[in-house]
Amino acid sequence: MGQFLLLGLCVTSGFGVFLHGYNSGLVAHVIANEHFLRFFDTKQSSSIVAAVVSVFAGGCVLGSLCAGFFLDLIGRKRTIQAGAIINIVGTVVQAASVGLTMMMIGRIISGFAIGFTQTAVPIYLAECSTRKNRGFVTGWSQLMVTMGFVATSWVGYASSKVPNAAHNAFTWRFPISIAAIPSIFIAFALNWLPESPRYLVRKGMTEQAYRVLVRLYYDGSNRLDLQRDIHQITIKWNREILEGGADGDSEWKLCFTVPKYRKRLIVAILSQVLTQCTGINMITYYQGDMFENVGIKDSKGLLLGAIYSMVAPVTCFFAQVFLIDRIGRKPMLYFGSVALPILFIVFAAVMASNEKSGYEDGALTKLNIAVMFFFNVFFQLSWGIVGWVMYGEVMPLRIRGKGGAIAAGVGNWAVNCLISQVTPLAMEKLSWKYYFFYSAFMLCVTLPTVHYVFKETKGLSLEELDSLWDAPTNDSFQSLEDGSVNAVPGKGEVGLDPQAQLEMVVPGSRYQRGRFRPGR
């Protein structure tokens, strides 16, 4: 039963980031739609169309930062639901647009909504996971993003086949409207799923948190492990309250003033910035233009884009199941930080040759397309999945909501907005030479950062990650002959009486002489 509940939790909450993939991929089809351009009396290369692309990311920045308040105020689950409801409003405004100003307002509202969901979902999934499956569970964040891109690609291709498509508003209004369906599903379905156990501990609801862990992971023989986990989570939270400053200290302030929190926030931000600086969104947003540059246009380009999008979820799922919890995060990042710049160099060289031949060389065109497909595969095997997993797991509970908002808002969406503004201008001025910038950045900046700044988090619980940035502070546990557990507090704890650490409410448990006894 627990496995089905966990799968339902991953899929249902994952639709929150599915909206990210769908809305982000949608714009590439909308701004290339012939009727859309004619209806709004504009052209694809105009600055106003570029604004339609970038205001979405701007809305995401605002949404992510605002989500920092709501994640800790109403919870992880309710924040995702709030984002879904806001996205319904944004979708309606976009689908009903009669002017580009109205379209941009709708894009901002939807962006604000996606800022909520994209910030909350990886945190919610990470907090509902264990040390053994956290990469797989949190990896649903990236898997569902890629599924959103798949959906928008095929919806866009199908819409292009509508009779008299060049004179039919259905070809762009209908794909926009589709985004309301997963939003409605999330808003209702999450009511039947539990809140994050770590958020419940944060709110002092230890008993409810334990029950969530039992619902998700109890297999008939691991009650002791689950009670140990809830004990560890609660002790860690109590310690963070004491270590993190006075009760009146703002958690926004703690993100920057507590050294070990600041280190982890920097890692979370870098995980997002460096993911964006792989160049993946340049390909995502402007793949239609890139296909045209190699001689593939119209419906053939849409079909190829749809096929291209399907590579991502297959590869991402493979990385989820077989790689991230087995070989770890850093080896995957090393691979991506070397393989992706090499592919960009090859891509630039082939495009340069294609330009000289006037795109008449079919072999070069096929090679260019193949490189794009390999880029997608290698990205999903590295930064695609690891970036969001590290974002969800790296920060401590005390600042996870606020720190997540900063990392997603600044590290992901602000950089995303910058790239969406710069890319069309750079492509126009530099053409294939622009790809060398990404290659140089990944080899000279990203690779050293992975080696010297990032830490391997595989196999550690969220509460044990302190040991990577500070002196170990987590409790170890010794099994006693009668089946109880003796908590052995770590050395050098700040202001915590060892016996006081054991006096927490855990359902069905008894504390006697420092022993934590599981209920029968």
Task: Give the SSE map.
Elements: H1 2-30, H2 34-39, H3 47-73, H4 76-95, H5 100-127, H6 134-138, H7 140-160, H8 170-177, H9 180-189, H10 197-202, H11 206-217, H12 223-243, H13 251-257, H14 259-276, H15 280-285, H16 287-293, H17 298-322, H18 329-357, H19 362-393, H20 400-430, H21 434-452, H22 466-469, E1 476-479, E2 485-488, H23 498-502, E3 510-512, E4 515-517
Helix pairs in contact: 1-5, 1-7, 1-9, 1-11, 3-4, 3-5, 3-20, 4-5, 4-8, 4-9, 5-19, 5-20, 7-8, 7-17, 7-19, 11-12, 13-14, 14-19, 14-20, 16-17, 17-19, 18-19, 18-21
Give the % helix.
over 70%
Secondary-structure arrangement, i.e. CATH architecture of the largest domain = Up-down Bundle
Can you tell me the number of structural domains?
2
Q: Overall pLDDT, averaged?
A: 85
Give the overall form: globular
**Total beta strand runs:** 4
Instruction: Give the class from helix and strand content and strand pairing.
Output: mainly alpha
Pfam families: Sugar_tr (PF00083)
Domain Major facilitator superfamily (MFS) profile: 9-458
GO molecular function, one term: carbohydrate:proton symporter activity
Keywords: Membrane, Transmembrane, Transmembrane helix, Transport
